[in-house]
Amino acid sequence: MTPPDETPRKLLLVVDAPSLLHRNHHARAHTRALDRAGRPVWALHGMLRQIIESIDRFAPDAVLFGLDDRTGSVRRDRYPDYKAGRAEKHPELIDQLERAGALLDALGLATLTPPGLEADDVSASGAAWARRHGWDCIIVTSDRDTFAHISDSTKVLRLIDGGIHGSPLLDPRRLHTMYGVAAANYLAYAALRGDASDNLPGVPGLGEKTAAALLDAAGSMQAVWADIEHDEGRNVAAALDSWSLDQGGRRLGARVVKHLAAPGARERYDFNVAMMRGHDDLDLGLTPDVPGTPGLLPLDIDRVSRVVGFLNVQATTDLAVRVLTGTPASAAARWA
Hints:
Blueprint: E1 11-16, H1 17-28, H2 42-58, E2 62-66, H3 74-78, H4 91-107, E3 110-112, H5 119-133, E4 136-141, E5 154-158, H6 163-166, E6 169-170, H7 172-179, H8 186-193, E7 194-195, E8 200-201, H9 208-218, H10 221-231, H11 234-246, H12 253-261, H13 265-276, H14 301-309, H15 314-325, H16 329-335
Parallel strand pairs: 1-2, 1-4, 2-3, 4-5
Antiparallel strand pairs: 5-6, 7-8
Helix pairs in contact: 1-2, 1-4, 2-15, 8-9, 8-13, 9-11, 11-12, 14-15, 15-16
């Protein structure tokens, strides 16, 4: 609760649109829902419904949607096997991914497709923008990569099977409780562990539990690498042994240091960090001091009714009019 003598901090909601579209495609394809032009709309409708529910829950001052550049990838240019092995996307999902930006722009919401980059880079930049401007930020996604952006000013709503209201809202304390990793160390943890979905192997010999234990015991990978370089990892091994014994486990310091000191281990870690780190310096185009610019709420009632109505789900249109335009429920019903 904000003290009465303090101005409430404004809130930016950043949405990982492709993540939500993928999730809703797989969850709702059985509905075969079509818009008024007869095109597949189940993923788009599911994403939009979840975002409307998020806006209703958190009451943000601005909303920004991150989209992937589907024409090029700086990460794939650097590493051609990036995300190799993923199943081919269904044509009906591709169609809805390609239409998402136009739908959101038509509503008056802000979208950003950074050249050669991904929605996660928009999330990273949104978190950085909020911190610089004294705002809070909530990132809505089903992708755990965004955990690296969690801080005192940024939380992540990670969508799971429970939907908006049944999904965990992660702050630094809850992230550590659930994963045993400090928010500031999540990128290092991911780099050690690797990411099979992006086809990025981890450091050999270090799985999720060992990576989390190492960071909890040593504090940071900067300290770990410095100790390995200057003292053959003796302090790291001792700290990890002490941590493990305190947890009722066996000594594992010497084994972990051996893996970290092996040829190629540091290179693998550094490569993963470079691939996984989100670009946090994108120009988001947000101008919160200029009323009516894309991304600011509330939206125009006629625009919302027309655009959402085209999806052909009356209940969602009614909800959108009420939530996105600030229209009371009774008035929204009359409008519909």
